[in-house]
Amino acid sequence: MQIEQRELTRPAERRTFEPMSNEQIRWLLKVLQPARTLASLPGGALLSEETHAALLGLPHEVYAAELGRMRAEAREAASELLADPDVASRVDRLPLRTGATVVAFGDSLTSEPQSWAVILSEVLAMRRPADGISVVVRAVGGDTTTHALIRVGEVIGLQPDWILFLLGTNDARTQGPHPTKTLVHPEETARNLAELRQRVSRETKARAVWITPPAVDETQVAGHPGLGRFGVRFRNEDVARVAHIVRDVDGEAIDVFSALGTPPPAELLLGDGLHFTVAGQKRLALEVIQGWSDAR
After folding, report:
1. pLDDT of residue 204
2. Three-state DSSP state, 248
3. CA–CA gap between residue 236 and residue 270 (Å, rounded)
């Protein structure tokens, strides 16, 4: 124990960082978010931005600058959405009371710094500032619906008015070049989603919006060095199966799998074929706004 204490309190050493391209830096910030991944650990919320940068192998000034750019792009995307009168009208019609709390619950598609949920938050702040609506992101990269069963307790504890679920992409994930199974069997995915729905309905007064996972570009996923390092693979037939399960959970689910195509257009995807550019996240936000504003 004494050795561990000395290690923790040892003065910081000078670190050297391997240079990365802007594309690599942006991918790291979109896919790996130490602030969200470590938040559940004791003291995780106290970790500094400098620590988050070091965990990604980035100098703090590079990390902070890129994070700032990404957040600015999210605000710009929100402004562009609201420039469309139809979108602005739909935002006005979203069934949200004054002071409402909305939780966006999911994986890396939701947790990244310019995700559809972040853009949605900016849209509401710009269009309905007097309503004081808060969008809380509770999402961790790599999570499956099984992980969601563990984490849903913290969402329930917030007693939100609405919960927006975008889960299941990682259930469809496979490992290695010749996989024989997905990380989560489809029958288990269905049971997990049914359990999530039941817990939310019994333990909160929140209404839920269910969003299907989008398709991927299988070739890009398989060829990406970052994902390839961990043996990550996806097949759209597996993602489609999960999307079908989500639609079965709620017949009014927002079906981005069908809306965005298989695979989604290249300009919506990062080079890994799995995660979204800011244009892709903006499109996801649009689909959510359109589907949610039509909710009965």
Report:
1. 98
2. helix
3. 17
Residue corresponding to tokens 């069934």: 95
> Cα–Cα distance between 102 and 117 in angstroms, integer?
10
Domains along the sequence of the chain with CATH = 60-293 (3.40.50.1110)
- Average the pLDDT over 119-144 and give the result: 97
Q: Residue 1, SS3? A: coil
* pTM for this predicted structure: 0.89
Give the integer Cα–Cα distance in Å for 185 and 172: 8
Amino acid at 89: S
Which residues face 175 on adjacent strands?
232
Residue type, 114: Q
Q: What DSSP designation does 166 have? A: E
What is residue 36's predicted lDDT score, i.e. its pLDDT? Answer: 77
- Output the pLDDT for position 147: 96
The whole-number average pLDDT for the span 15-34 is: 73
For the record, the structure tokens of 252 come out as: 């009014």
Q: What is the DSSP string of 109-154?
A: HHHSTT-HHHHHHHHHHHH-GGG--EEEEEE-TT--HHHHHHHHHH
| Backbone torsions φ then ψ of 197, nearest 5 degrees | -65, -40
